[in-house]
Write a structure and sequence with these properties.
12% strand; 202 residues; five-stranded parallel β-sheet; Rossmann fold
Length: 202
């Protein structure tokens, strides 16, 4: 069976958590496409050329914990605005989306650019303040010295960059179901998303 679930949305809205839960519940494969750009961003911070890093990307390195740092997140946003980098990573994502057994993919442009033909599309969002609070808590738990004010500024800067870029800007697909998680717990958000996906599967 080939069935693609495309989940887009801004940073720290909960799309990754929802994507993993859907994949686990339905037995689908999951890909956090943002990690592809973070992996390229990490290499760029180490001095490598962005396009070369994208062309030589090793999927086996997507579990590197350094990919979760704020510096790499900002670098990922910058390299994601480079058309040649996006093109280099495009086919990898397309192939993953149509794999046998179903796929759940989360990112910024899955439902609009990578998989406009996806059978189920979700756009998961939340207020900048709610997202900053979540990301701040995550970073503190990881032992990083960050402030809530600084995290909020980074979230807003990332939003502006993602929504304003010329190539594949962050925007909800016209046929995506929007889920605002600002006031939702994880279980409620996952339940709403699963309801949408199961309706599409039926």
């Amino acid at each position: 069976m080939r069935f693609t679930v495309a989940i887009d949305g801004p940073a720290a809205a909960g799309k990754g958590t929802i994507a993993k839960a859907i994949a686990r519940e339905l037995g689908f494969a999951h890909l956090d496409t943002g990690l592809l750009y973070r992996a390229v961003g990490l290499e760029v911070l180490g001095g490598q050329d962005p396009l070369e890093a994208a062309q030589r990307l090793d999927p086996g390195r997507l579990g590197d914990m350094r990919l979760r740092t704020p510096e790499v997140a900002q670098a990922a946003s910058r390299v994601a605005a480079i058309p040649e980098v996006r093109a280099a990573l495009f086919q990898f994502q397309k192939d993953f989306a149509r794999r046998d057994g179903g796929a759940v993919m989360d990112g910024r442009d899955i439902g609009t650019v990578v998989c406009p033909e996806a059978e189920a599309k979700l756009f998961v969002t939340a207020s900048a303040e709610a997202r900053a609070a979540r990301r701040h808590a995550e970073l503190l738990a990881a032992g990083q010295a960050v402030t809530l004010e600084g995290t909020l500024a980074e979230v807003r800067a990332r939003d502006e960059r993602d929504a304003g870029r010329d190539v594949a800007p962050l925007v909800a697909a016209g046929d995506a179901v929007v889920i605002d998680t600002s006031g939702l717990g994880i279980e409620e958000a996952v339940a709403r998303a699963l309801e949408v996906v199961r309706a599409r599967m039926a």
